[in-house]
Each structure stands twice: as structure tokens, then as C-alpha cells.
């Protein structure tokens, strides 16, 4: 297979004596939706934070399009095309939905002089922001203050913010949590669609969604990779059933 | 030679005094997340207590317990009456609350005691020079302050390492959410920390009164130097405040003695270097 | 979030500016100078609003840049023949801007309370520079020759009698320009990014913004604008002293912001006028001015949470959600 968009090799993160992520190998390819599942505390969110530069790895390597990026700060990841959503909703609450997404789109604009360009409060949305909002189904709520959105709508906003910057790698930490079944199904469809031209990593608890959309599944338990493979193989694995699916049932 | 030794001792003694003030500042900040600009005014109040008590009774010895008891009481009242409402408010509100307190404390001092400079006599028993090495001798009062501050610092370290409430305070300063986990009454800890911090600042003021004399707004300079101590020493840690205070005390004293053209500036240059090199402070646990 | 006055608000502000401009028709020179002082303080507080209300940085060292701007007149050598304001003003902007750049570059390596302490300490350092070194010309301050209104040898000579009115017009003009400039800045990408940092710095960084440089830009610009205010102070008073850099002036500017309202760009202007007016009234009632000031601050901090700009006639209120206090960026949980 060609070079992965993002690759973790022996990635490890310790907090004091606790090893939250232990020797994880993972490759994300454009055109593939890679689901990461595991019980609470398995290290999934820590992994997302490592892959997006929020945390530095204690050991191991992290490659973005083949280049070492383990010591990059988070803003460089975002500029290099790594978009992410947060498990705990993390938006600019006092600002409008449109402004949130527009800033996300603006973040990758580099020429400094463009920073003095006027973007009037409500009348000059960038196309990228508008397109992202329509795509996640928030087109009708662009003028609302982000702090007033429902939990599910905030998840949609998170995805729109990640999309607006035009990333190649998308790290989505439980993007469907708290959504109604209809929205959830629609967004699962969107994720599948996005996987065509992005490298998508999806952390998700709903197994039906995972097995419906994932091209590849990694099962994490206690910070380690328990099993990695195609959805069908994971579903059939006795070890996974014991360690994880058993818990859920 | 003996000049340098005297300046070093002066610096050490000044640094230890700074430790008494900044340890309260850093603990109150570390545990409650409050910045108290009026901490310097508490120091000023302590100095004026020394002036009033030693003027009235002729003895500084009575002023020291008066400053401690008064500090514990004032601290508890301030914590209960005002500060408790501000732990979760924005920094700006805390800054202005404590700025208002400075104005009120200074105005109260002006109403009660006027705006004059006053000197406070060194207790007669300590108003001597103690012969040190060779022909070098040093003020007995300064030595006594040095010893008292060291004893207090030692007692604080012991209290924090050995007692239950001490370890809770340390835990709270490092990780505020720990207090609930330890099952301790956070409100009680807050009041103890605030009262002790206030008492330490006022005791420092009383000890400093014979050395620095007492005057309006005397707390401002000490407050700002203590901010430098906290920035240089590191976040919310008693050890950081201790070593930071000694370093700043010695650097400030020596620079004023030997680099008169840079008089007040040396400590700020030191702070700038620390911020460039280790922005979290020299003695902070990373 | 910080808002700029809408149409109604702009009309009200414009009328207030016109009212101030018409004061020379009937007010005494003393009152004209008092209002000039309030206008200069309004500039100073407005420059600090760029940090506090827009970017979410609470600085306690802002007066240092105000003082550097005022001392620029002295440093340009304005003792013999006076120099054109077209030279002293840019010099003030340059000096205070550079000072802010240096202080900001270091102070922005810290956050929250440490930022506050660091800015206070560096402000105090600049205070000492002008207080103790030959640069400042004395601890008690120094008289400066007023910069003149001259261009290419042509000079507009202002008589002593006209001066209070002329200085009021000039100061008012500078304040209006500064307000409009900042209102414009808030419509640019730079301005929106600064507001985003106030709302959630951590998220802005993870979206790809290099927040340090943006904050440093805001800090430098705010310092330069404070320098403009300081320069206008020096030009109005023809006297500068180290006390202009003292930290209690920084605290006063923060108070003007809180008094006027943290949520509106024009809040500090209202706050500055209120503060100067309060001082004047307190002086009439009592010699214990600080007592009154301290009690008023307590009352404001304990009571008036949204400042004067938060007091509105309900019908004029735009259908807009209430401004929320800045949320602290949440720590990344493992």
C-alpha cells in the first residue's frame, strides 16, 4: 500500500506511572475510514490528542505523510491538514455558528496581509465555511450563538469546524454522541462519504455505526492495541468479544 | 571583605522576609486561584501594628503576637466576607476587588495614623552588634529576624509535610480538584490558608518595621518584588517561593550595593532571563 | 462577546462627541481641561480594552506604555525650541510600541495570573527607568515644551487663551479616530481571531492559529495606542512625571473598563468619563477621595456586573444573546 497519510509507530504516552497509550501502531490512509473502539479509559482520546499534537508522545514515532511530526505543536498539525473534533465539546461559545466555522477556515490562511481583510460580522462568510455547515446539516442555524446549541448540534458544529479547514486527515472523537437517531444516521453517511477523499479516524461507541461505516477497526484495551483488522474479522474475534464486546452487552 | 559578608547577610535576611510575604501570596493563589494585590497592604498593616504597639508599650515583643493574632483574624474575616465570593470570578474582578481594598486600607491608615514616616526602635536587648569572624560584626536584630524567618520557614515545611491539613493544602495547591477527592472540607482549608497567609504577611511587616521604618504605601514595593519572587520561583509551590525569595533578596541587595546605576532594575532583568529560559519558574516541578 | 455599538448606539455616541465638542461655547477653561483629561483617559482605557475585552489578556502594566508615550516628548528633546506634533506623535507610537513588543514577547510566555504579575513587574521596571536613571530627567517629573502644530515651516500658533478648547478638540479627534480604527479592526480577520482567542484560546490553537503571535500583535498595538494617549496627556499638560507609569494607573484603567462594561468597545469611554467625574465629585464632598473611590469600586465589583454599557433601555436592546464571560480553555484530559 502507498504511504499512509498518518502513521503511528510504537506510540506511547505516560502520565506519571500510568501508561495511557502503550506501543500503539496505527496507519491512516486516504480513502479509508479507520474506527478505533474500546472500553472507557482504553486510551482512545489520549491517542487522538497525540495524533493532533495536543500531547507529546513519551516514546515512539509519529509520521505525517512520511515526515516526523512528533515534536510539533498542535497548531502546526492543524495547518498541515490534520482536522479534529473534541470529545468534550470545545467551541467558541460566545460566537455564532458561522463565525466558529469561518475562523476554522481562516486558520490555514498564511499570508499575513490577508489578516487585515475585512470580514464583516454576518455578511461575508467564506465559501469553505458555508459548504462545511451545509454538509453537516447546520445550514439553517448559522446565525445562532454556539453556546445556545443542543449537544447534538454542537457535535455537528465540531465536525464542520474540522472540515472547514480542508484537512486531509480527520480525527473524530465520538462525533455522533448525543445525536438523535436520524441525525446520527445522516452523519454516519457523511463520514462514509468523507472517507473517499480523507484519511478518517473515528472513535465511536455505537457498534452498529462502526461496523456499518468502518473499512478497518482497531480495538484498544488498557492503552494497548488488542486487535486490528477488517470489521468482519474483528466481529468474529473471540478475544475482542471477551475483552470488550462482552462488557458492552 | 566584611562589607561583602554584611551585604550577603542583608540579602539573606531580606530574602527570608520576602519569603514570609510571598509564601502566603503563592499559597492563596495556588489553592484558591485568587491574586491578592492587597497582600502588600497587609504587610503595611503589620508594620503599623509594630509601630503602634511598640510605641504604646515600649516593646516590640508584644507587637509580634499582636500582628500574628490580628492577621489570623483579619484573614478569616476577609476570606469569609469578601474573597469567598471571588474564587470563580474573572481575574479582572479579583484585581479590582483587591485594588479597592488597597485604597481602603491605605485610607484607613491615613485616617487613624496620618501620613508621616515613622521609625520603630530596635528592641534594646538586640540593639547591639554581634562580633562574627575577625573584626566583622553584624546587627543582632537582623540576625534575630533571620533566625525567626528560618524557624517559621522550617515550621511551615514541617506542617505541610507532616500534618493532614498541610498535605491537603499542598495537594490543593498542585491540583485543586484533589481536595474533594481527599474528602476534606474545602471551605475550611480555604479559610486556614487565607488566615495563615495574612498572618505571615503581617508578621513580616512587624519584623521589618525597625529595619525599613513605616510609611504610607510601603506595601507596594514589597508586593511587586514578591510578584517577581513568585514568577522566578515558580507556580504555587512553597519551595519555589523559598528559593526564589532568597535569590531575589540577595540579587536585589547586592545590586543596590554594588551597581548603583542599575539600582532597582537588576531583579527585573533576572526575571526577564528566567522567563526566556524557563517560563514556568526556576523551581517549578515540570 | 465584545460588541461594537449598532446604529442606535453609534448615533448616541456621535451626539455625545458633538456635545463634548460644543463645550468650549460655555464651559470654563478649568472644565475644558477636566474634560480633556477624561478624553485622554478614555483613549488610554480604550487601548487597554484591545487587550482585556478583545483578546482576553488582563495586563497590569499598561500604564508603562502610556508613560513612555508621554516621555517621548521629553526624550525628543523638547526643551529648547518646540518640535512639531507630526514628529513627536509618531515617535511616541514607535517608542511605546517597541517597549510593548519587548515586554509582551516575555510576558506572553506566561498566562493568567502570571501574565498579570509579569506585566506589573515589567511596568514597574519601566517606572524605575524614568524614576531613577538620567533618562527621565528627575524623580519629580519634568516640564516639556508643548509640541506645535506645524508642517514644513508653517505653524498654527495657538494662543494661551484658546489652548484649552483647541486641546479638547484635538484630543476628541484622536479619541474618535482611535475608536473608529478599533471598530474597523474588529471587522478584520485579525480582529475576529483575537476575539476567538478570548473565547477559547486552546481551541484557536488547535484550529491552527499561532496564538502567541496574534497576542503579541495585539499587545504591541495596544501599547502603541496607550503611547498615543500618553503623548496627548503630555501635550495637554506640558508636564510628565514617572507617576504616569505607576501601576495604580494601570489598575485605574482596568477599573474604567469594568465600570464602563467589558462587553462593549465603547465601554471604557463611558468608564473613563464616569471615573473622572466621580473623582471630581468626591473631591467636592470630602478630602478622603480614596475612601469614596475604594467603596465605589467595591460596589461595582460586587454589584454592577455588566458595567454602564450593560444598562440599557429594554426596547433599544438588540435581539441578541447576552454576552457571556470568557470561558477558560479547558485542559486536555488524558
TrEMBL record, chain A:
GO terms for cellular component: plasma membrane. It holds the Pfam family ABC_tran. SMART domains: AAA (SM00382). GO terms for molecular function: ATP binding; ATP hydrolysis activity. The keyword rRNA processing does not apply. The keyword ATP-binding applies. Residues 6-247 form the ABC transporter domain. This is Amino acid/amide ABC transporter ATP-binding protein 1, HAAT family (TC 3.A.1.4.-). It comes from Falsiroseomonas stagni DSM 19981.
TrEMBL record, chain B:
GO terms for cellular component: plasma membrane. CDD domains: TM_PBP1_LivH_like (cd06582). It is a multi-pass membrane protein. The chain crosses the membrane at residues 12-30, 37-54, 140-160, 191-209, 221-250, 257-277. It comes from the Bacteria. One of its GO terms (biological process) is amino acid transport. It is found in: Cell membrane. Coiled coil: none annotated. PANTHER family: ABC TRANSPORTER ATP-BINDING PROTEIN, BRANCHED-CHAIN AMINO ACID TRANSPORT SYSTEM PERMEASE PROTEIN LIVH. Belongs to the binding-protein-dependent transport system permease family. LivHM subfamily. This is Amino acid/amide ABC transporter membrane protein 1, HAAT family (TC 3.A.1.4.-). It comes from Falsiroseomonas stagni DSM 19981.
UniProtKB/TrEMBL annotation, chain C:
Keywords: Cell membrane, Membrane, Transmembrane, Transmembrane helix. The keyword Cell membrane applies. It comes from the Bacteria. It holds the Pfam family BPD_transp_2. GO terms for cellular component: plasma membrane. GO terms for molecular function: branched-chain amino acid transmembrane transporter activity. It is a multi-pass membrane protein. The chain crosses the membrane at residues 51-73, 85-107, 113-130, 165-190, 211-233, 253-279. It is found in: Cell membrane. InterPro entries: ABC_transp_permease, LivM-like. The keyword Transmembrane helix applies. This is Branched-chain amino acid transport system permease protein.
Amino acid at each position: 500500500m502507498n504511504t499512509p497519510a498518518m502513521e503511528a509507530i510504537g506510540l506511547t504516552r505516560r502520565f506519571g506511572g500510568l501508561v495511557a497509550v502503550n506501543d500503539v501502531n496505527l496507519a491512516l490512509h486516504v480513502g479509508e475510514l479507520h474506527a478505533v473502539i474500546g472500553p472507557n479509559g482504553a486510551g482512545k482520546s489520549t491517542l487522538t490528542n497525540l495524533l493532533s499534537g495536543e500531547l507529546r508522545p513519551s516514546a515512539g514515532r509519529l509520521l505525517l505523510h512520511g515526515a516526523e511530526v512528533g515534536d510539533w505543536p498542535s497548531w502546526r498539525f492543524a495547518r498541515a491538514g490534520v482536522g479534529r473534533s473534541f470529545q468534550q465539546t470545545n467551541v467558541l461559545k460566545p460566537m455564532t455558528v458561522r463565525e466558529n466555522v469561518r475562523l476554522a477556515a481562516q486558520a490555514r490562511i498564511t499570508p499575513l496581509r490577508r489578516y487585515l481583510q475585512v470580514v464583516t460580522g454576518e455578511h461575508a462568510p467564506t465559501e469553505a465555511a458555508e459548504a462545511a455547515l451545509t454538509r453537516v446539516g447546520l445550514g439553517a442555524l448559522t446565525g445562532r450563538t454556539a453556546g445556545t446549541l443542543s449537544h447534538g448540534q454542537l457535535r455537528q458544529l465540531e465536525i464542520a469546524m474540522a472540515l472547514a479547514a480542508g484537512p486531509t486527515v480527520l480525527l473524530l472523537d465520538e462525533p455522533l454522541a448525543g445525536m438523535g437517531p436520524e441525525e446520527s444516521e445522516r452523519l454516519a453517511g457523511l463520514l462514509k462519504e468523507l472517507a473517499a477523499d480523507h484519511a478518517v479516524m473515528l472513535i465511536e461507541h455505537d457498534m452498529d455505526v462502526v461496523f456499518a461505516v468502518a473499512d478497518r477497526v482497531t480495538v484498544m484495551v488498557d492503552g494497548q492495541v488488542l486487535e486490528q483488522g477488517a470489521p468482519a474479522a474483528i466481529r468474529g474475534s473471540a478475544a475482542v468479544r471477551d475483552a470488550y464486546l462482552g462488557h458492552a452487552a | 571583605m566584611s562589607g561583602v559578608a554584611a551585604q550577603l547577610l542583608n540579602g539573606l535576611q531580606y530574602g527570608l522576609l520576602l519569603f514570609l510575604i510571598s509564601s502566603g501570596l503563592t499559597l492563596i493563589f495556588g489553592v484558591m486561584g485568587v491574586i491578592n494585590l492587597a497582600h502588600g497592604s497587609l504587610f503595611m498593616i503589620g508594620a503599623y501594628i509594630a509601630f503602634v504597639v511598640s510605641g504604646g508599650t515600649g516593646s516590640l515583643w508584644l507587637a509580634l503576637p499582636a500582628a500574628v493574632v490580628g492577621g489570623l483574624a483579619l484573614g478569616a474575616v476577609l476570606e469569609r466576607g469578601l474573597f469567598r465570593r471571588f474564587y470563580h470570578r474573572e481575574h479582572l474582578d479579583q484585581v479590582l476587588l483587591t485594588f479597592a481594598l488597597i485604597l481602603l486600607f491605605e485610607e484607613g491608615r491615613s485616617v487613624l495614623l496620618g501620613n508621616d514616616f515613622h521609625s520603630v526602635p530596635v528592641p534594646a536587648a538586640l540593639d547591639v552588634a554581634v562580633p562574627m569572624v575577625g573584626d566583622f560584626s553584624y546587627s543582632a536584630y537582623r540576625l534575630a529576624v533571620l533566625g525567626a524567618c528560618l524557624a517559621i520557614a522550617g515550621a511551615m515545611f514541617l506542617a505541610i509535610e507532616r500534618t493532614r491539613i498541610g498535605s491537603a493544602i499542598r495537594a490543593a495547591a498542585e491540583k485543586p480538584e484533589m481536595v474533594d477527592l481527599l474528602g476534606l472540607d474545602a471551605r475550611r482549608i480555604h479559610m486556614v490558608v487565607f488566615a495563615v497567609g495574612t498572618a505571615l504577611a503581617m508578621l513580616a511587616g512587624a519584623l521589618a518595621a525597625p529595619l525599613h521604618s513605616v510609611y504610607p504605601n510601603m506595601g507596594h514595593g514589597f508586593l511587586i518584588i514578591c510578584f517577581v519572587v513568585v514568577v522566578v520561583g515558580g507556580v504555587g509551590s512553597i519551595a519555589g517561593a523559598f528559593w526564589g525569595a532568597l535569590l531575589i533578596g540577595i540579587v536585589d541587595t547586592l545590586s543596590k550595593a554594588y551597581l548603583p546605576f542599575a539600582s532597582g532594575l537588576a531583579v527585573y532583568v533576572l526575571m526577564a532571563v528566567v522567563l526566556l529560559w524557563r517560563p514556568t519558574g526556576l523551581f517549578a516541578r515540570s | 462577546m465584545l460588541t461594537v455599538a449598532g446604529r442606535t448606539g453609534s448615533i448616541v455616541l456621535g451626539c455625545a462627541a458633538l456635545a463634548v465638542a460644543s463645550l468650549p461655547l460655555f464651559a470654563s477653561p478649568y472644565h475644558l481641561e477636566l474634560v480633556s483629561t477624561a478624553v485622554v483617559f478614555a483613549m488610554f482605557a480604550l487601548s487597554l480594552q484591545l487587550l482585556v475585552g478583545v483578546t482576553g489578556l488582563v495586563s497590569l502594566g499598561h500604564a508603562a506604555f502610556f508613560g513612555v508615550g508621554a516621555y517621548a516628548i521629553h526624550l525628543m528633546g523638547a526643551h529648547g525650541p518646540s518640535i512639531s506634533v507630526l514628529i513627536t506623535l509618531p515617535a511616541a507610537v514607535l517608542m511605546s510600541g517597541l517597549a510593548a513588543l519587548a515586554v509582551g514577547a516575555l510576558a506572553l510566555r506566561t498566562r493568567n495570573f502570571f501574565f498579570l504579575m509579569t506585566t506589573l513587574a515589567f511596568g514597574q521596571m519601566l517606572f524605575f527607568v524614568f524614576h531613577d536613571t538620567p533618562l527621565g530627567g528627575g524623580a519629580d517629573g519634568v516640564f516639556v515644551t508643548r509640541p506645535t502644530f506645524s508642517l514644513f515651516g508653517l505653524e498654527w500658533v495657538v494662543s494661551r487663551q484658546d489652548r484649552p478648547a483647541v486641546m479638547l478638540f484635538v484630543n476628541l479627534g484622536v479619541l474618535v479616530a482611535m475608536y473608529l480604527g478599533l471598530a474597523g479592526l474588529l471587522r478584520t480577520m485579525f480582529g475576529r481571531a483575537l476575539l476567538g482567542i478570548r473565547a477559547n484560546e486552546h481551541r484557536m490553537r488547535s484550529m491552527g492559529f499561532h496564538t502567541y503571535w496574534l497576542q503579541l500583535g495585539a499587545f504591541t498595538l495596544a501599547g502603541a495606542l496607550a503611547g498615543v494617549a500618553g503623548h496627548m496627556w503630555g501635550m495637554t499638560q506640558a508636564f510628565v512625571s514617572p507617576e504616569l507609569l505607576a501601576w495604580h494607573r494601570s489598575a485605574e484603567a482596568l477599573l474604567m473598563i469594568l465600570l464602563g462594561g467589558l462587553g462593549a468597545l465603547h465601554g471604557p469611554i463611558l468608564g473613563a468619563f464616569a471615573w473622572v467625574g466621580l473623582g471630581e465629585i468626591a473631591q467636592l464632598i470630602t478630602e478622603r477621595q480614596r475612601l469614596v473611590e475604594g467603596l465605589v469600586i467595591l460596589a461595582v465589583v460586587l454589584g454592577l456586573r455588566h458595567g454602564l454599557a450593560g444598562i440599557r433601555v429594554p426596547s433599544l436592546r438588540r435581539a441578541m444573546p447576552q454576552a457571556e464571560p470568557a470561558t477558560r480553555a479547558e485542559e486536555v484530559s488524558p
